[in-house]
Amino acid sequence: MLYRKAYAKLEEWKHESHRKALCIVGARQIGKTTIIREFGHREYKYFVEINFATDQQAAGIFADSFEADRLITNLTAYVRQPMEPHNTLIFFDEVQECPRVRTAIKFLVEDGRFDYVESGSLLGQRQKEILSYPVGFEEIYQMFPMDFEEFLLANSVQDSTIQYLQECFEKLVPVSDSVHNTMCRLFYSYIVVGGMPEAVRIYTETHDIGQVVSYQREILELYRLDIAKYAFGNDRIKIKAIFDSIPAQLNEKNRRFVLRDIDPNGRQNRYENSFLWLADAGVALPCYNVTEPRAPLQLNEKHSLFKLFLCDTGLLCAACMENIQLDLLQGNMKINMGSILENMMAQQLKANGFSLNYFDTKKIGELDFLVSKGMKVLQIEVKSGNNYKKHPALNRIKAVEVWKNNPSYVFCKGNIETENGITYLPWYEVMFLRQEEIPLNIIYEVDISKL
After folding, report:
1. How far apart are CA 118 and CA 105, in angstroms?
2. Final residue before a domain boundary, out of 142, 177, 201
3. pLDDT at 449
4. Who contacts 134 (Cβ-Cβ below 8 Å, separation ≥6)?
5. Nearest CA among 433, 431, 434, 435 for reference residue 183
């Protein structure tokens, strides 16, 4: 099985003293079912799986009552498998096909006999059918395609090499030339293959890019079929138009999504739900403009100005339809690499826990990404060419007194170095730029003895 970081999350969840149900969400074909199934068989004595997409009669388990004893009686009668209390994991897959499961989870978790993991795609699209959300009884975990570190491990890169690269990142010392050159080639491979687990498996076993691209185009078609199945009424046409236009929109000079390119008479408020549909489905990653690079960024967002990235860089390459894969694998920068590189960075930053923003004004110019790390705002430029030390927008931002101390990074083809307060990093080092985790226990107590 390909290594996935989500497995560590499942292990952490299993050892919590007061476990909620864990609901793993994300786009289709990113490996949710595979990792849960593997975890259930390895970590539990008994594992029960119910897929509501392939077994539509299973919804009858929740048809007549939400009382725990009745639910469990129905469950045991339906699955006809051993279910030992405290040693059984019950996996509800494709829960978007049976919204009543989300309501039943509250009562099942309260009962405490078994552990529960849910999984699904497009959960937000059927939320109106959920009678009552299991607030306090369900933990949501967002899963993404395989990130670059997972891709390296799938390609048999040693843990010691990854540790060495992380040390170089933390100490800001250059990577050795031999390792740097190999990592760049692996990075080009990741751009083409992407992080869909089956695409990665095909690549590692065959190294046949033709097979990889064929599979990626099947996924793109599956996403279009999902739009036809789950979107409502006129929204289907809007959502499909947005989805199909993402590659062309990213290829524009400023990458910003321009609605008039797909509908000359379209208005932003009439399309807002369509953009949110793709984001909720995990298919697209919105990146909103902000009025200034100051924390908290979310308070400065302008939702009328945004970029829209595809969830996986390999799918973006496959959607381009110009057979650019060979050029990319050879590191040929003559083709327009800017949009593809930005998409890859957006994908990795999102997987690393960051929300995505950018900054663009007439006075300053455009900065590719802004992300918050605590109360720090990281200013990020992504460069595809040789002239990566030319970044006028970043220079103008650093000339502004209130913004000049923000950490600044340029991801490029060069090696690690620092110059004029700007850190230059190889593209592949983005895997180590991670969001800070919130401590599990934050104890804050006010002394009121003198009141």
Report:
1. 9
2. 142
3. 80
4. 21, 102, 103, 105, 106, 109
5. 431
Amino acid at site 124? G
Q: Are residues 86 and 119 in the same domain?
A: yes
**Do 206 and 288 belong to one domain?**
yes
Phi, psi of 158 (to 5 degrees): -70, 150
Residue 162 has what pLDDT?
A: 98
User: By residue range, what is the domain housing residue 54?
Assistant: 6-142
Quote the mean pLDDT of the chain: 90
Does the structure show a pLDDT above 90 at 87?
Answer: yes
Same-domain status, 228 and 79: no
Quote the tokens at residue 123. Answer: 């959960």
Rounded to an integer, what distance in angstroms lies between the CA atom of residue 134 and that of residue 117?
13
User: 391 with 311: CB under 8 angstroms?
Assistant: no
DSSP symbol at 193: H
Q: Give the pLDDT band of residue 128 (cuts 50, 70, 90).
A: very low
83 and 177 housed in the same domain: no
Q: List, for residues 54-64, the tens digit of each pLDDT value.
A: 998 999 999 88
DSSP strand E in 291-356: where? Answer: 301-310
Residues 136 and 154 in one domain: no
| Residue 335 in this model has a pLDDT that exceeds 70 | no
Tokens of 316: 């973006």
Name every residue whose Cβ is closer than 8 Å to that of residue 278 and which is 6 or more positions away in sequence: 239, 242, 243, 284, 308
How many other β-carbons are positioned within 10 Å of the β-carbon of residue 93?
Answer: 22
Q: What CA–CA distance (Å, rounded) separates 353 from 99?
A: 28
Task: Give me the pLDDT at residue 230, please.
Answer: 84
Counting Cβ atoms within 10 Å, is residue 348 exposed (0-12), middle (13-18) or buried (19+)? buried
β-pair type (408-412, 21-25): unpaired
Q: Are residues 91 and 182 in the same domain?
A: no
Prior bond of 85 cis (ω within 30°): no
Q: Tokens 């949110």 label which residue?
A: 276
Strand 88-93 relative to strand 46-51: parallel, antiparallel, unpaired?
parallel
Mention every residue, 6+ apart, whose C-beta is less than 8 A from residue 314.
Answer: 190, 191, 192, 193, 194, 195, 196, 199, 212, 216
pLDDT band for 318, please (50, 70, 90 cuts).
very high
Report the C-alpha gap between 95 and 114 in whole angstroms: 18
φ, ψ (nearest 5 deg) of residue 212 = -60, -50
* Domain assignment of residue 1, yes or no: no
**What CATH number does the domain containing 69 carry?**
3.40.50.300
